[in-house]
Every structure is written in C-alpha cells, then in structure tokens.
Design a protein that fits this description.
alpha+beta; Cytochrome Bc1 Complex, Chain A, domain 1; single chain; 16 helices; 2 domains; globular; six-stranded mixed beta sheet; 438 residues
Length: 438
C-alpha cells in the first residue's frame, strides 16, 4: 500500500505545470460549499480545508492555546491513541496534516480513491473527537516550549516579533502564534477544548478538492466529514490599526551580524492597484537577483548575501515589509542604501525595461504553482478566502499585463513612504541607535 501511495505522489509530481483548471463550485446537501477540480486520471484526492481565524482567535489570556490544540489533532482521536492514529494513516496510505497561522487553521488530506471512506472517517475523528490525552498534551507542550526557547535566541525571530509588536500594538497579530513560555505552561486541557470550540465551526470553513472525485461524491463527503460542527465559532478580532512610526529600533544581541526587518503600511490584495504594487515590488526587492535592492546592496557594495521586500497581505492588516542582514559595521550603510532606493522608486517609478522584465517573471511564474493536486487544492482555498471569483485563474495574468508604466509610477508615489520606514535591527550595529519619531 505504501508503494501505491508513493507511486501516486510520483505521478502527481510529474504532472505538467498548468494554470488552465476547470473549477466547479459544489454545495453539499447540508449546505457546505467547496471548489472542485476533477482529475480522474490518477486514483487520488487532495483535500484542503481552512478554518478562518487561526491563532488570532486565541483568548488574550490563553495565548498559544490554538497552536497547541492544532498540534494535538494527530495525537489520537475517538478510540485511537496517538500510536493507533499514526498506524491507521500508514495502513490506509493516507496523509493528514494540521497547521496553524495567524489567520487560519489548515487541514491537508491526501488519500487514495479506494481508501476514501476509511480516510474520511479517520479525518472526521480528528476534527470532531480529538482525545487531548494528558500524556499527549505534555509531550506536544514540551515541543512547543522548546521552539519558543529556541526562537528567543534567533535574531530573525526576535526582529520579526519586535516589528510585529511595533506595527500591531495590542492586536492579536502582535503576539506569537506559539504563545509565550508563561502562557503555554499555564494552559490546561479545558483551555485546549475551548480553543477547539473557537476554531471548528461551519461559518469559518473553506474547502478545495482536486482529484478522482465527482461533485456528487464530494458533496456527500463534505457532510460526512464536517456535518455536525457548530454553526458559529469565536468572533474574529477587528482589523489591526497599523501604526508604524518612522525610525530605528535596535535590539542588542551578541552576534557579529545584524538582522534588520523593515516596513511601513501596505496594500490589500483586493485593492484595484494591487497588481501595480506587485510589479513595483518585483522591481524594487522581489527576491530575484535582478531587483534594485539586490543589485545596489549586494552586487555593487557587497553589504549582504540577500535582501528582499514583499507585500505582507493578511486578513486583518496589510504591511509592506523587507529584510536584510549585514555585518555589524556595515548594516547602517545597508539601511541607508535601502532608504535611497525606496526614495528613488517613490519619486520616479520604474523603467519600461524593468516593467517588461517584471511582467515576464510574474506571469511566467504563475503557472508553475499548479504543479500537482495538493498545490491546486491549496490555491482553490486561498482564492475563496480572498473573495476572488471562480474564474480568477485564467484572467489573473491579463490583469498583470494590463499594468502600465504610469500605473506603477502613480502607485509607487502613493505606496512607498521612505520617510516613514521603520527598521528593527537585532545585533550590535555600529552607528545605529533607537530613534523613533511619532
């Protein structure tokens, strides 16, 4: 059975990249909606389920409870303890994964058509009747606490956490998904049960399915798998009031290389100017060796191995961010160069050559995301959560191509705010100190 599963995965990985997918909206008899792409050529199904809210639904006094609860979902369910649950997955050649982010709890299921019924029953048990045994709680809690302690010594994590605290204030986004040592240590089984109740509700579900399954069969599967959940879960927090002051925050940390995270207010993916902003970012610091930041900071001056920027779009906040690392004696120069490039782009936009190259990259990279049933199912869920239309995929690159040089110049002037960039620097940087202007 494991060989069959491995073969299925190999065949799926070998499927050609494709952005032409036939998406159907399926509504179960019980009223649960999913998006489906039928692919009957291989007897295999990928199912992606999202429950909106994620760690943002944590009780403020119980930070990390939803993360701990999610980590326990595969540690036993129904009459199966952790060992039995793991053995059942192996025997069915079924893969179940559970993950939490600030905005969602994600469930990924991969199963063979012949084992669909038993695989769905196993996943249903994990969702509806997780055991939350005390020994499992202790084991997973220990793993989470180990990660928290490790993160306290990671300059990248320190920089990201500090920036989040500055950007989001008392909003849930300001707090680590894992919680703190104190909050996680204090969590009880009752807290974990409360976290489960907060997340798993019908009004927070998004589903994407790809593979050997018909709309009728998927509809019945949805009711079998998710039917019986409460209609409503915990209320989502309000949007974050992003307030990032200009300046620099230095966090002293004994290391020869400083890490810097920087940013200011961003742009929503639902904004009509989002694709112009996407093109702008690709030119400015999108991560390729052709970006301006990489060229000016790394190639010309040798200040870093890597520098990049990105549009951090979340459900409840949008920030334009970036990151760079450099030696303590050169990080100040790297920051000056980044500010200069931010200013040049804000004032002048991009060139026609840069625009054309960015369009070629952004449109050419898009079909590569569709490289298997799992990634496509993931895309279907993401589209639904963003409120995108079901015909978005074939029209997406047209929207990119429609961006003009004038569009990018206008958006650059509106979005880029070099005077209000804030840099969080973790290390022992020479020539830098904390300076914040309100």
């Amino acid at each position: 059975m494991r060989l069959i599963y491995a073969l299925a995965l190999t065949l799926i990985a070998a499927l050609p990249a494709r952005a032409e997918v036939d998406i159907k909206s399926v509504t179960s008899p019980g009223g649960i909606t999913a998006w489906l792409v039928e692919e009957p050529s291989i007897p295999f199904v990928a199912l992606e389920i999202r429950f909106r809210g994620g760690a943002s639904l944590d009780d403020p006094e119980k930070r990390g409870a939803i993360n701990l609860m999610t980590g326990l979902l595969e540690e036993g369910a129904g009459d199966m303890d952790a060992r039995d649950f793991s053995r059942a997955q192996e025997e069915l050649a079924t893969s179940l994964g559970f993950e939490v982010s600030r905005d969602s709890v994600a469930i990924s299921a991969r199963f063979l058509t012949e084992n669909r019924e038993a695989s769905v029953a196993l996943l249903r048990a994990a969702i509806h009747t997780p055991r939350f045994d005390q020994d499992a709680i202790g084991r997973v809690r220990g793993q989470v606490l180990s990660i928290i302690e490790s993160d306290k010594k990671d300059p990248d994590d320190i920089a990201s956490r500090t920036f989040a605290e500055i950007a989001y204030g008392d909003h849930p986004y300001a707090h680590p998904v894992n919680g703190t040592t104190e909050s996680v240590t204090a969590l009880t089984r009752d807290d974990i049960l409360a976290a489960h109740k907060a997340v798993f509700a019908l009004d927070q579900i998004y589903v994407g399915a790809v593979g050997d399954i018909t709309p009728e069969t998927l509809g019945a599967l949805l009711d079998e798998l998710l039917g019986g959940l409460p209609q409503t879960g915990a209320s989502a927090p309000t949007r974050a009031a992003v307030d990032i002051p200009a300046g620099v925050t230095v966090v002293d940390f004994p290391t020869p290389q400083s890490v810097a995270v920087f940013g200011h207010d961003g742009i929503s993916q639902s904004d009509p100017d989002f694709f112009a902003a996407l093109i702008l970012n690709q030119v400015l610091g999108g991560g390729s060796f052709e970006s301006r930041l990489m060229n000016e900071v790394r190639e010309k001056r040798g200040l870093t191995y890597g520098v990049y920027s990105y549009l951090a779009t979340r459900d409840l906040a949008d920030v334009y961010m970036g990151s760079v690392s450099s030696s303590n004696d050169r990080i100040a120069e790297a920051i000056d160069v980044i500010r200069d490039e931010w200013t040049k782009a804000a004032e002048n936009g991009v060139t026609q050559e840069e625009l054309d190259a960015a369009k070629t990259y952004v449109t050419g990279a898009y079909p590569l995301r569709f490289d298997g049933n799992g990634p496509i199912a993931n895309i279907l869920v993401g589209m639904q959560m963003l409120g995108l239309p079901i015909d978005y995929i074939p029209t997406r690159n047209d929207k990119v191509e429609a961006v003009t040089l004038a569009d990018v110049k206008r958006v650059a002037g509106e979005l880029l705010d070099p005077e209000n960039l804030h840099f969080v620097v973790v290390g022992q940087p020479e020539g830098l100190q904390t300076t914040t202007s309100e």
